[in-house]
Amino acid sequence: MSAHSDAAASRPGRWQPAVTQDPLLQKHGALGQPVSRIEGPLKVQGKARFAAEFPYEGLCYAALAFSTIARGRITALDTAAAEAAPGVVLVMTHRNAPRMKAPSLMMSSPTAAGASDLPVMQNDEIHWNGQPIAVVLAETQEQADHAASLVTAGYAPLPAVTSFDEARKTPRQLDNILGQPPVVEIGDAEAALKGAAVQVDQIYRTPRHNHNAIELHAATVAWTGDELRVHDASQLLDLTAGQLADIFGLEAGKVRVSSPYVGGGFGGKCLWDHQILACAAAKLAGRPVRIMLSREGVFRIVGGRTLTEQRVALGASTDGRLDALIHTGIAAMTEHNSCPEQFTFPTRHLYAAKSVRLAQEVADMDMLANTFMRAPGESVGTFALECAIDELAEKLGLDPIELRRRIEPEKDPTSGKPFSARHLIDAYQKGAERFGWERRSPTPRQRRDGEWLIGMGCATATYPYHRFPGGAARIRLTAGGQVTVSTAVHDMGMGTATAQVQHIAARLGVPLDKVSFEYGDTSLPRGVIAGGSTQTASIGGAVIAATEVFVEELLKLAGNDSPLAGLSLAEVETRDGGIGHRDDAARFESYESILRRAGRGELVCEAEAPPPAEMEAFSMHSYGAQFCEVRVSEVTGEVRVSRFLGSFDAGRILNAKTATSQFKGGIIMGIGLALTEETNFDPRTGRIVNASLADYHVPVQMDVPAIEILYTDIPDPQAPMGARGIGEIGITGVGAAVANAVYNATGKRIRDLPITLDKLM
Amino acid sequence: MNPFSYERAADAAAAIGLAKGNTAARYLGGGTNLVDLMRETVERPEMLVDVTGLSHKIEPRSDGGLLIGAAATNTALAADAHVRTQYPLLSRAILAGASAQIRNMATVGGNILQRTRCRYFYDTAAACNKREPGAGCDARDGFNRYHAILGASPACVATHPSDMCVALAALDATVHLDGPDGPRSMALADLHRLPGDRPDIETELKPGELIAAVELPPLPFARRSTYRKVRDRASYAFALVSVAAALDLAEDGTVRDVRLALGGVAHKPWRASAAEAALKGRPADPESFRAAAEAELAAAAGLRDNTFKIELAKRTIVAVLGDLTGDEA
Ligand SMILES: Cc1cc2nc3c(=O)[nH]c(=O)nc-3n(C[C@H](O)[C@H](O)[C@H](O)COP(=O)(O)OP(=O)(O)OC[C@H]3O[C@@H](n4cnc5c(N)ncnc54)[C@H](O)[C@@H]3O)c2cc1C
Ligand code: SF4
């Protein structure tokens, strides 16, 4: 049953986004408790089944062969040796692949999930170095891998743009950046900059990054007639199902995708060529197929964060007010992609300035499509902006936190909307106190320990709140009082299910052990994607709506013989395993009693979340203050992060343990962004050179110090549960906090990530 | 990975017998390098002869030296009490390499003969003279941060990646070989070759020869020795530059004797003979150290990404020698 007519919207007691608050803001229960991840025991026992672990009768294994040129045509493709190799079932190329529609670009339609809109293995065209040119199916993975190495190809190369320096000569202006205008102008910022008493005007560069989740991308797929079953490692279930149906010309509903456990997503576990190719090859072979990319395969066919070159220019008065705030730049992209790395986004909301100019362009290259990677835009955008703020503070002779206090806006500086809640300065204050910020010398190079120079830096973290519409939730109550909430959402290890169990227990007033949460399967009510730190709030919206229907249904079932007789949604609350009058403790009936008296074995209700009107009415963002201490060797230039503290203002924290892990994980990834991570893209060939974990440096244990996490825990009055989303903010600001600390230690500004030792020698 | 057969040898003679005359046979140590290369189809052996059954003993010799079986694991060697007290630089060098898991598998023989980490060598889509003589060298004008600044040739600018070998080179280690023509020995410093115009020929080993053992001569002053590795992250990364050093100071504070070797700079572990010569008899102070470093790196040449390593090597030499002159060393 659906609950969203206009009549329903005006029903008293119902949550109306932007108008009323989620009633849960007044309750606490298990919310916020450090509950351990509910799937933890299954995982440590090896019983949690991941995408590449589903057994099937007659399963065959897939391996890919990749192109070695960036652009051109395949003129020869010799698969004979591969076909003759032991155990090979078939070799699929563009010559024998089933005909498929091309994916459509994500956000271009309700079922679009494509990172790229290029057809997959449908013709002889090569669009990037590393594009799959053949799929080998064999009886074992080893046989498939071996046979794939025997596939040889000849090419007629076409001129390819594989150098960023070349590509940037003909920049392209997009008509929108993820739905936002590509250019924002308030006043004449360039003129204001020229006239400003104090100026900072610098170029910042950030490199390409690749996804390296611990679980390799994988899928196990099986056809039964025209029904397609996909076990995926996914943060995009419903869209993947819809897009696959589209690609293979199936009716909606014929594709079921599930993904109960995912070993890390970060934006990378969406729909890429491997799932499509596995489904196509399974169709061709008439057998189920398992595909698991090699680590190199992930680099070749799963996109990453693109490189950026950003200009930040700040013009200020001597008392530290911004006259001009300019943030412009360019990122590499392809024409078949919609991820321009929205690095100007943080600057749209952070600081008050009399004039503003924000603009970003793209440089088209012949390469793999970009994708989202933890805080796309904000992660690298805050590097540029927050380094520039630090540079300005120094020029002004102000403490960088004091400067931020002076440019703290009263309302959103570009949209003019009120903030739903903003406690950035609070976060700074708490963090500074705890970190011992007062021990920082405003002048660089003042602290040392032998050859090691020691410095401190800080930077603002920020990430937008979003709530995706379209998600639904189903509540099922059994006679025994057991509650199951179901929705096709994702838990990639971050604790979605655990936090939702806590949330549902609090919302329905039942103990944790009476609650189950079903997710990770498109056979469940439609869920939202796990992206943009939106999932928890989006599920929240759906659960609120379902709860309203649930309570109303129970009130109906309770009837006239109940202490609840005559009460409406607005007059009651859930508590102690039942429904009670808000102001009258005596008027209460338990769920079990209502069901029993009504002679019902169970009650099932489903509703869709109300549209996210709060996002229209308010500027909603999470904030944080990142504090870093580094040691830099004066001999070698090696940088070691010795202490880190993140102080966050992300609304209400639903689970102290999983939230702290999310913040820490983001910070660790940020340390990688600051110091070690860089994809080596060879401009001569367009080929990624360091496609392995030995050569692509993510931080290792010894690169990561003890990290301390603080949070304000102030609920956002406009958000479901008061929670704004925490998955991505952790990485934002880290690059700048490290770079600013390096400057404080050494007196050297490094504006080009990663901060490798050669830049400091 | 290509199909191959697998044999386990109980001792050196058996291993040599199994591999004899078979150019497609390879000796297999812990497999941490060879198996990776097979997965990438850079190595395509048809037969693997497992030599982990060779001696793994670590035996002190009557002259104060040490005999190390080729099958000793990196972990065992680093943990050996004699090594830790008499040759601390060796223990530190090994522990600076790879990860605990890899060191548990890796053998001394395999470590010495591990191949370069040049990414273009690993990627069969790239041009590489080492993999395919005459094909060209994509690293020369490509990503070459980890590449050589000393002893490179137009044909190849790769480095030897071992940490352990840098310490062995500093210690004047001898390698005991065995092969179809019988046993022989040579200085470790002579085992690896500079690339010249045949970077595919990396060592002086003859076909079918294997490493049976490594011998360290006694070097009492190696008690005052260390290893410093400079790299792109705190652990689990190959050296940009590394320095193994042992220092013997005279009463008057001059250098009586010194051993110095560099890693991450050349196609072989680089014994810094010029620096050693420049140091002997000189006062153990930063000026002499710097002068010695300058002498060693006088012939160094940088590439697109690695020119900084010339200065980095000099500074690291000075810092390491400085540490060894300090009281705590
Ligand atoms: C991710 C990663 C990081 C690493 N980091 C480092 C590092 O920081 N520093 C470092 O020094 N090393 C590092 N290594 C390399 C590691 O030290 C070597 O892989 C290891 O020492 C090789 O030993 P093995 O016994 O496994 O050799 P194998 O892989 O078995 O063999 C290597 C070669 O030696 C030959 N061989 C083996 N034994 C004999 C013998 N007795 N006689 C003749 N030939 C023989 C084989 O045929 C083969 O050609 C790293 C490796 C990896 C995978
Ligand atoms: S440096 Fe040597 S190993 Fe690397 S590509 Fe060139 S020839 Fe090959």
Number of domains of chain A: 3
CATH superfamily of the largest domain in chain A: Aldehyde oxidase/xanthine dehydrogenase, molybdopterin binding domain
What string, H for helix and E for strand, traces the elements of chain B in order? Answer: EHEHEEEHHHHHHHEEHEEEEEHHH
Discrete helix count of chain B:
13
Based on helices, strands and strand pairing, what is the structural class of chain B? alpha+beta
Would you identify the CATH architecture of the largest domain in chain A? 2-Layer Sandwich
Task: Outline the structure in words.
The complex is a heterodimer of chains A (761) and B (329). Chain A has 761 residues and is an alpha+beta fold. Chain A has three domains: 6-30 and 469-611, Aldehyde Oxidoreductase, domain 4; 51-159 and 213-301, Alpha-Beta Complex (Aldehyde Oxidoreductase, domain 3); 377-466 and 620-759, Aldehyde oxidase/xanthine dehydrogenase, molybdopterin binding domain (Aldehyde Oxidoreductase, domain 4, 2-Layer Sandwich). Chain A has 18 helices and 29 strands. Chain A has a seven-stranded mixed β-sheet, with helices on both faces. In chain A, helix 10 packs across helix 11 (400-406), helix 14 (535-558) packs across helix 15 and helix 17 packs across helix 18 (734-746). Chain A is globular and about 80 Å long. With 329 residues, chain B is of the alpha+beta class. Among the domains of chain B are: 5-52, Uridine Diphospho-n-acetylenolpyruvylglucosamine Reductase, domain 2 (2-Layer Sandwich), CATH 3.30.43.10; 228-324, Enolase-like, domain 1 (2-Layer Sandwich), CATH 3.30.390. Chain B has 13 helices and twelve strands. Chain B is globular and about 60 Å long. The A-B interface holds A 68, 86, 142, 145-146, 149, 451, 635-638, 640, 675-676, 680, 682, 684-685, 687, 689-692, 694-695, 697, 699-703, 756-758, 761 and B 1-3, 39, 41, 117, 119-120, 122-123, 125-126, 138, 141-143, 230, 232-237, 240, 308, 311-312, 315-316, 318-319. Bound molecules: flavin-adenine dinucleotide and iron/sulfur cluster (SF4). Residues 26-34, 36, 51, 70, 74, 97-98, 102, 105-107, 109-111, 113-114, 161-164, 210-211, 238 of chain B line the site of flavin-adenine dinucleotide.
